Structure prediction request, 63 residues.
Amino acid sequence: MSGVGYQVYSKSGNEAIRVVVSSAKQALAKANELAESGNEILIKDLAGKVLDTATMAELGARE
Prediction:
């Protein structure tokens, strides 16, 4: 994976899932998929900065 990447976190109780993807579109898709289970979702860039869904949608539109 080169360039920008994103980490999508899903947390429910003591369980957590982290998925690393290479595009904002993939991050949004994975966040939507994980949110269907009702879990808390967090998206970060690879530098660790938390990104909101509006920012991710804007980044995805530019890809």
Notes: The chain has a mean pLDDT of 90. The chain has two helices and four strands.
